[in-house]
């Protein structure tokens, strides 16, 4: 089992509100622990053609039971109406998506095609690539509230690249919030960081509170900005 870290939150391409989605797109999440009403809001920052691109992504559990209903909304600003919303109906036990829908601003809701699990062809960064690997407890203040987190610092050189490049990862995680991910399934965009032999990795499902990833001159950031327990369904689906 690998320990993967991902920055563009679940937030990965597999959850984009497009025409199809893999049935196992969220099987790395601790779906069984979700309760109706729980939500988390993230700010993402990454380079763009005209400077830094800032986006917000909100994950909400709007119904629980044998089947868990999850909404993933993407916004340009924290208070803006979503540009698009992806709705997932997920089996609580198997964590497989049963049905999915997508709606873009000003458009009708459409059902999203489910596809078989894809081949994992993302670039792999093995623990052996690391020249630095540290873990420590740290308290972060988010939205005026103190959160006890595990801070993970990793650095090294990407040996798998044609031209080896330096990388650095800073990751803060907690067990205190919803939308936890199994430790070996945390992800950061298109990069997989494999740390199956690292004794300091998290032992239980965790929620990302803050993360930064640097590969060469490229840098991305993910920050939790708010969370709560009052989420309601925003999209009507059958």
What report would you give on this structure?
By secondary structure, this protein is an all-beta fold. An eleven-stranded antiparallel sheet has the order 7-6-5-4-3-2-15-14-12-11-10, with no helix packed on it. Strands 1-8 form a two-stranded parallel sheet. Strands 9-13 form a two-stranded parallel ribbon. Helix content is 0%, strand content 50%.
Mind sketching the topology for me?
Elements: E1 20-22, E2 39-48, E3 51-63, E4 67-75, E5 84-91, E6 97-104, E7 110-111, E8 113-115, E9 123-126, E10 130-142, E11 145-157, E12 166-174, E13 191-194, E14 207-215, E15 218-228
Parallel strand pairs: 1-8, 9-13
Antiparallel strand pairs: 2-3, 2-15, 3-4, 4-5, 5-6, 6-7, 10-11, 11-12, 12-14, 14-15
Rg, Cα atoms, Å: 17 Å
Number of separate structural domains: 2
Report low-confidence residues grouped into runs of 5 or more: 1-14
Shape: globular
State the total count of DSSP E strands: 15
Put simply, the count of helices is: 0
* Major sheet strand order: 7-6-5-4-3-2-15-14-12-11-10
Structural class: mainly beta
The share of residues in extended strands comes to over 45%
Mean pLDDT: 83
Summarize the structure.
Helices cover 0% and strands 50% of the residues. The chain is mostly beta strands and 238 residues long.
Top keywords for this entry?
mainly beta, eleven-stranded antiparallel beta sheet
